[in-house]
Amino acid sequence: MEVSRHNRAELASLEERVAELRKETQKIRDAYSLARERVTKLRVSTAERRKNLAAAKALPVASHSQSVQYFQQGMEDMSDMLTHTRKVLVEELLNVFDIAEVGGRPSLGGTRGMKGEMTIGGLVLPVPGDMRRYSPDHINGAITHTLHFLGLLTFYLGVKLPFEVTWSGDAMGVGIPYITAGKGSELGGWARWSIKQPLHIVPSPSTPSTTGPTPTSSSSSQTPSFLTALTMLLYNTLYLCHTQSLNIPLSQSGEILRNLMNLCCALEVGQKSHQTGFGIALEHPTPPSFALDFTQLLQITSSGPIQRKPLVTPNLPLRPSDADDEVDGWDIIEVDF
């Protein structure tokens, strides 16, 4: 009896062991099947990669060069188109603001000056040494026109200027314009002039001149000065001309409108920009190639003696509105500040 029980117990144990072995065997078979499927997929993927690699090796190198040349030509064509568009906009801007030379290209109207002076919107913008010959309202109007022109011109050309213009009315063209240094390098010494300077003349009987004394350093002695602001405008103009490969000598630095007109008529205008250069993008202001020092320009602008004298212009063909101003063949305009 005991032997029979022992045999039955051992048989049950062996059956359980066999069942466990069958389960383990099935697990191994399932894992083997998954491994075979994975190996098959890897073989297919490897074969596909080898096929692609062989096709890539068989592709001629010349086709890559042709693709590169095609895209380069496309960029050059786009650059030429953009340059042409900028030139058209600049020429149209020159006509809209009616920048002209007295005695040269006829102006559409406004105040006449001496032969050789430049006008914008019919208003003469003289060099700094001749500004006393005009009323403050006249100078303010001419400068406002110039600021609007310069703002649109730099927008079309995509050029960032060293000095930035803001308006007291918190909107472009509204209120009194102020000018101050923007962010840039220390080259040229312009970035230190961070105090806002008014590009506006306030008429006052006690004011001996429209420009006034101006400090020649950027220390704490910086005080708001129209002449300092005007020098900043001159510096912007000279830098803008430099960006378009038009170099202006210091002897002509005060002729803002003439320099801007020459810039608009230059052959290379529109080719270089801070925003879209296509390989010839401009450096941020001011690069080492622009070696003009702001303090030097300020000294040159304020060094010339200013004589207070009436504006005398030769006898030119008059418009009907100017007939009453003619005296013995000359137009004499006396301005009191």
Topology:
Elements: H1 2-58, H2 61-96, E1 100-101, E2 118-120, E3 123-124, H3 136-157, E4 163-167, E5 177-181, E6 197-198, H4 226-243, H5 256-264, H6 294-303, E7 311-313, E8 326-327, E9 330-333
Antiparallel strand pairs: 1-2, 2-3, 4-5, 5-6, 7-9, 8-9
- State the end-to-end distance: 141 Å
Structural category: mainly alpha
* Number of DSSP strand runs: 9
Q: Report helical residue fraction.
A: 40-55%
InterPro entries: UV_resistance/autophagy_Atg14
Organism: Clathrus columnatus
Protein name: Autophagy-related protein 14
Family: Belongs to the ATG14 family.
Quickly describe the structure.
The protein has six helices and nine strands; from the N terminus they run H-H-E-E-E-H-E-E-E-H-H-H-E-E-E. By secondary structure, it is mainly alpha-helical.
Can you walk through the features of this model?
This protein has a domain at 128-307. The strands form three sheets. The protein has a three-stranded antiparallel beta sheet with strand order 1-2-3, covered by helices on one side. Strands 4-5-6 form a three-stranded antiparallel beta sheet, covered by helices on one side. A three-stranded antiparallel beta sheet has the order 7-9-8, with no helix packed on it. 45% of the residues lie in helices and 8% in strands. The chain has helices at 2-58, 61-96, 136-157, 226-243, 256-264, 294-303, and strands at 100-101, 118-120, 123-124, 163-167, 177-181, 197-198, 311-313, 326-327, 330-333. The radius of gyration is 39 Å and the shape is elongated. The chain is mostly helical and 337 residues long. α4 runs parallel beside α5 and α4 crosses α6. The longest helix has 57 residues, at 2-58. A hairpin with a 2-residue loop joins β2 and β3. 27% of the residues are buried.
